[in-house]
Amino acid sequence: KLITGIGEPMINRLLLFDALKMKFRELKLKKNPDCVVCSDHPTIKELIDYEAFCGMPAHDHSHNAELQSKPENITANSNPNEITVQELKARLDAGEKPFILDVRNPNEWEIVRLNGAVLIPLPELPNRLHELKGKEETEILVHCKMGGRSAQACEILRQHGFKHVKNVVGGINAWATQIDPSLPTY
């Protein structure tokens, strides 16, 4: 619209589309008087040189670009904060008894659980950290259904001084599909 001069441009307006309700809304935007770019007294008046800022060219025009590391060298345990269900199974088979924390809800725990796991649902974790007292230096393997809640739990534990926390990638569903297919999935 700006280039062709046809119609009215959406300057200072935002068009919202709700696909579920099939409705459009138009919001009028007010100028932020403190904006460093568009206020009456801007402090940023020109584009920065991104190549100088980043210390590298914006494009690699080489047609012979190769990966620095081959995909076959990349494994899930490349992330030191995660453990795969295969790695966990190997450790259990070797006789290790890691501390496994299950952060699912009690109704999920009733459906399926890992032997030896301790249940502390994610919403209760901040108020039940005292139950893990003395385990700050212990490796804690955290799992949930698929890995999302356990990742949140790992972050909470790290913020409270637990140094050796790992998220079980894929959670109990990965265990049931990849290690023990006799277990129910939900």
From TrEMBL:
CDD domains: RHOD
Database matches in InterPro entries: GlpE_sulfurtransferase, Rhodanese-like_dom, Rhodanese-like_dom_sf, Ubiquitin-activating_enz
GO molecular function, one term: ubiquitin-like modifier activating enzyme activity
A family per Pfam: Rhodanese
The Rhodanese domain, residue ranges: 94-184
Protein name: Molybdenum cofactor biosynthesis protein MoeB
